[in-house]
Amino acid sequence: MSLSLDLHQQLLQGKWGSRHVRPTNLIRVFVSSAPTDMEAERDALMEVAYPEVQATCQKYGLIFEVIDLRWGIHDAMGAGHVTTQLFLEEIRRCQKLSIGPSFIALLGSHYGNCPAPLTIKEQEFEAFLSQLPEEPHTLQLLAQWYLKDENAIPPVYVLQQSPQAKFDQGQSLVLALQKAAWEAEKCGLISQEQRQLYHKSEIHNEIETGLFSSGENELGAVVFFREVKELEEPTLDGLNSQLQEEEEDGVLDSEDQQMLAELKTKIANFYPDQIKVHKVSRNMALSGLRHKRQPKYLKEFCEQFIVATNHQMLRSLRSQEGSLGSPGSLFQELVHHTALGQEWSQTSCWRQELLDRLCQRIKQNNDLVHSPLVIHGPPGCGKTTLLCHLCKAMHAVLGQETVVVFRLLETSQLGSSCDNLLHNICLQVCLAMGLPPPCARGVGSSVLFFHSLLLSASVQGTQPLVLILDSVEPLCAPRDPYGVFWLPKICPPKVHLIISVLLEEHGALRKVIITPEDYFEMEPLSHEQVGEILGKHLVSAGRTLSPSQRALFQKTFSEGGHALPVALANTEAQQWASYNPLSALVILPTASEAAHHLCGYLEQVHGSILVGHALGYLACSRYGLSEAELKDILSLDNEVLSEVYRLHPPPSKVVLRLPPLLWARLYHDLTQWLVERWADGFMLMGFLHREFSAVVQERYLTPEERTKRHLLLADFFRGTWSWGMKKPVQLPSSSKPVSFDRKVTPQPLWFSSTFANQRKLSELPFHLLQAGRIEELKRDVLEFLLAGNMNWIACKIITTDVGSLTSDFAMCLVHISCPELRLLRDSLLLLEPILDATECRVEMIYTEMLARLHFLAPLYPNLIGSLCQQCLSWFGSWPHPVLIPLCGFLYPPGGPLQKTISGFPEAEIRCVRVFKKGMHAASVALDHTLRLWNLVSGREKLSIHNVHAGEQNWCQLYVDEKNRIIYWASGSEVNAWYLEIGVPAFRIANEPLDEWLCTAVFTPRLVVVTVSARGTLCLWDSISGQLHSKQELLELGEEVPTCSVLLQKLGRMVAGFNQGSLLMISSDGNSLLKKLPAGIRFVVLSKDESLLATGFHQFMASDLMHNGEVNAAAISADNTTVFTSSNDDCIWVWSLTKQGLLIDVLGDTGMPIIHLVLWDSTLVSSSRHTPYLRVWDLGYNRKHKQLLPHMACTQCIALSHDAKYFYLPQTSKSCNVVIWDSVEGEEYDTLDVSAPVQCLEVAEQRNLLFVGLASGTVLVFPLDSRQDVDCIPPAENQKPINILALTQNEFQLAIACDDMVQVLNVELGESGPLFDQPVYMFYTQIPGAIISSMALLAGYRVLYGMTSGELFLYNCPQSQVFPLEAHSSNITCLKTSNEEKWAVSGSADSLQCLWDVDLCCQEHEMFFQKVLLLDTIT
Asked: How far apart are CA 706 and CA 701, in angstroms?
């Protein structure tokens, strides 16, 4: 699909000025050859060439489909005369759909049969009859086969089909027509061109359509000639000589051979580059290939076919390379909806009055604030067609610069996901209007961005924006996480939104779109409208009806009817011939009755088994099936093949497939009931109408049959019978089961390194689960889908997203009770926000999964253990540098951390509240946005952007669940919103110079309580926002309120102040509860209001000592536990029943936690420095938590070289060093030291641990003995030790204290390590900066970085210092390569530099602009 820049812009603006090509990833090739010739070649292509070409296409993400309608047919299935037209239609479809070669002709020695035309003009046919007055038998034959249809304008004679007609009867008819044509031409009644039409064979007509009639045939056609070796060139003279010899032998007909020679000559003259010639001996050409194989010739033929087809395919891909621009998936989606919209708007609009009303309403609303418009009605009422006409009219109504976004949601995979749909729409709008594009999916709120984008489009004001969305029912369903909240309640000027819904669905919208005038109902068509529509359709089709036929049609719709049954009836009536008896004509008033009638007709014509199974597979598919997939699936269905080959054996002893002609005929009769769907990057088939889908379910899918359909679909997408695997079948023509190769498409997980099998990823888990055999599902799903299949997990995440994979797991868990499966699903939920916030790479997936699951592998060896082992095997084969977890260091599933909820793009979280029994949460961010979350799914439910919010130096949230109102207090105002619909209830504004600092909602009395910075207490009505009372608080002095909590039982507020006062406030006044030694940061209350906790500096009122400043606290419902957070980046868990004993520590993200909200066992935490919420389950299984409690200081940690042991201080100011065994997951030992630990260094070769203390002393612990501890005394300045560094051979040790460095030799004596005086000592002499990072190199060279950003290499023996200038902020890390040629430095501004140590010059620098969201246990 090659698109020009102009066409790109047309698509983005929704213009239908020119006919757009359809999106396709399909190589669809029609193979043409004479029915009685080239059989061996066609069999060889089926067995050898097609699989090779198919494998090449798959590597480029393409479907390869061959249309060889003559393969596998016998006389009973014979093509017949009607099928000739079907062949030509299939050629045109190949030219339309294929992006590469579309037509291949195989020409040998046979010209083929000449078909009788389907219709003959009245004047021409009667001219034939006039030439045969003396041949009554011929006249009778023509009268028997052709009947006059006076319903055609002008009348024509129509060929009649007789199921009992034999081949020789058909040939007699053709000979009679040819003879009559000759006579008519002699008399001048017809032209030579008209006469030649009766002498052209089927293959001649096919070549003219596939080669001569295509404007781009040179890009899509190849012709293979099979010639005898005596003829060097396919010239006309040479061919005539050859044909004469063959005619003398009585083998070939001279006239046919003359036509064949002329055809070959014409091809050679006009398209010499498209010809591939194969030479065989004369005997082989005449008879050899019919009786025995010619391996050498067929091998060369197949090789040339493969080369020619692949060449054209690759050339076509190169011509399209880059034509879609970026992103290509958007333009594929746009082309799909545009093409369908154009097709469905080609007929005249049946609802012109309603269309005019809509256009007028849109025009009136263009400069106003208005509501979206809703088109509603029952299925089949014509909503979709109306919206297609509306879309087509928008540029005429609002101007050519209008941007029209049009989506037919039932025809696209986007319709099942609100996030993906809104992201896709926003991307189109941004590209069309030159606005900043949306972030990647999963980052931020797609709903919020959509709403803000509509405002931006309106503010821009230069281009009207119209969004037309058809069939939005799935997006308004209760099960959707967004419900109707994605739908804006108000559209700004120049922005219009028109949606369509079913009649029974639109009730949910009444909460959002309230005004009845915004709803437009699709009423049934009247009797008069039906008659008018019939007349227009007949005129456009060049048809009419007899009076009795027209009366029958009008009688059926005497009361009118809906659009769908009327449309179906119109299509049926257009096919009525004047000679059809009235009793044989059927018109049904409902779509359901018409669908049942169609199924009965299809069963009669095509067989009940083929029809039932084909439609059943389509109905059971998840998103639809491509034609190539359905033909493969039917070729695996033994019931279908047994019926097909009931009377005749299959054409091949090796390959067994459904003859393509049978599907082509069925598809031709089904076309008006099918629709193209764009899913998984491919064009698929689905049912166009709900009524037809319901009828198929009713007729063909009993529970037993449905299970069979799903099982075979699972077999196909699993690839069970591909790659030459033969499937047995018991055919009626055989006495025992025989195994055949079905030549179905292979289904690897990856087609190539860049193209994954998205169809398998989507369909396989669905069918394994829908089959309903639970015991088999447990085995199959765990064996083929999940267990030990880390490749599947990584592939699904990379090609789609984590959310899609977790949805598959959710399907599994409905049918399968498996704890390991649930843990795996939970690990993906933990993984989702990290991958959403970063560029997803395969190595990141393996690292994250192993780091989370490693700890659980011994507990669950079957599934999780297998996955961990696969991760390790994958790391072993990965050719690039990668971090390999040696133990579990990220939170495992089933542990305390349940999920991370992202969706705050670069916005600081200011407040959090939990409600609905811990199932939902509300949050406010610095971007002035209130968000409601579902804590179970982790999805955003509603977002409200408050344009009136102040600077938000202070913010509070309260949820009144009884009255369904949420209150948002910020700055100098309080806003109330209705939870159900997100509509404002009221707004309270304070004086500009006196902002509110404390707010609470007293639910029993329906009162909002506010306390301002100046000490003003106000009471407001919590429903209406009216002021009840106002008074000043007494004796506050200079104190300002900082926090508050409401005692609902007492009707009083407890407020904390910036100078330590804790006051009890009521409408009667205020009283001092307690004076604390410092400003109060927060006040929290227990659920029963019996416990009150306040936080300030490093203490809480209950004297729970912290290492950093206390930020937040929460009290458990049973008053036994307190949860606190401070600047040491952890959540501390204290037992009140054990005198404040610290019983647990939950690590977070390395950022101070500012908010803690508790509801029963659900704890929600957030930080002002991270754009996400953490959800913790305090009732977690203790087996699923790493026993390492926390790391008080992530900079003060050392580990052994094999990573078996960690060395870390117990707390940030602890005088103990913990030795942690990472393999066993337990504490190995504890070392007592004399002062707080500052830094650690391990000399593993010498079995020593160096501990730098705040006292300036360095203790040296032999790791094999706890008794012989050595000591390096402090330097003269006695400053704390900043950093310790060892050379790689561990012969020297460097000790840094602020601005001084000492270098010592490390020697081992008989009794332990020996330390002499420092060999070298130097000062940095940089005022105001201290050493922040250091590395010690061989030769007494010290590489050190400063807090000010300077980096130096100091050569101690030469007393020379070499500056390395690059950084401008604190040097946070230094590391040298194994041979010390290279060094890497990192700084606080996210800059990393690579240095050549010998030359002291910079080689490379790396800068990270995005902070990775990792949740290490800290």
From this structure: 5
Q: How far apart are CA 119 and CA 971, in angstroms?
A: 82
How do residues 659-682 score in pLDDT, each as one tens digit? 999 999 999 999 999 999 988 888
Torsion on CA atoms 850, 855, 861, 867, rounded to nearest 10: -10
Q: Report the first-to-last Cα separation within the chain, whole angstroms.
A: 52
Amino acid in the structure at residue 249? D
CA distance 796 to 804: 8
Please, are residues 114 and 199 in contact by the beta-carbon 8 Å criterion?
yes
DSSP 883-933: ---SS--BPPTTSSEEEEEE--TT--EEEEEEETTTTEEEEEETTTEEEEE
Q: Give the DSSP per-residue string, 13-32.
A: HT--SSPPPPP--EEEEEEE
* 1087-1118 tens-digit pLDDT: 888 888 887 654 554 566 666 678 888 999 88
Alpha helices per DSSP H over 109-253: 122-130, 136-145, 167-186, 192-196, 202-207, 217-220, 236-248
Q: What angle do CA 736, 742, 744 make, to 5 degrees?
A: 155
The tokens for 420 are 């993906």
Alpha-carbon separation of residue 513 from 195, 379, 486 (angstroms):
67, 22, 12
- Listing DSSP states for 610-635 in one string gives HHHHHHHHHHHSSS-B-HHHHHHHHH
CA distances in angstroms from 222 to 35, 105, 212, 275, listed in the order given: 19, 7, 12, 6
Residue 470 CA to residue 505 CA, distance in Å, equals: 13
Total residue count of the chain as it appears in this document: 1418
Residues near 1407 by beta carbon (within 8 Å), at least 6 away in sequence: 1390, 1391, 1392
Residue whose structure tokens are 């606190």:
1124
- Please state the separation of Cα 208 from the chain's center in Å: 43
Distance CA(582)–CA(549), nearest Å, equals 7
Q: Amino acid letter at 649? A: P
The half-sphere exposure of 267 on its side-chain side, counting CA atoms within 13 A, is 30
**8-state DSSP, 75:** G
Q: Are residues 369 and 493 in contact, defined by beta-carbon separation less than 8 angstroms? A: yes
CB atoms within 10 A of CB 397: 17
Whole-angstrom Cα distance, residue 423 to residue 439?
9
Q: Where are the alpha helices (DSSP H) in 345-417?
A: 352-365, 383-398
| Residues of the chain under the 50 pLDDT cut | 1-2, 217, 231-252, 287-288, 290-291, 323-326, 443-444, 786-788, 1098, 1101, 1187, 1189, 1191-1192, 1410-1418
Sheet holding 63-67, edge to edge: 63-67, 26-33, 103-107, 221-228, 275-280
Neighbour count for residue 843 (Cβ, 10 Å): 16
250: three-class secondary structure by DSSP? coil
Round to whole Å and give the CA distance between 332 and 677: 12
Number of alpha helices (DSSP H) and beta strands (DSSP E) in the chain = 38, 66
Nearest to 1168 by CA among 1111, 1095, 1098: 1111
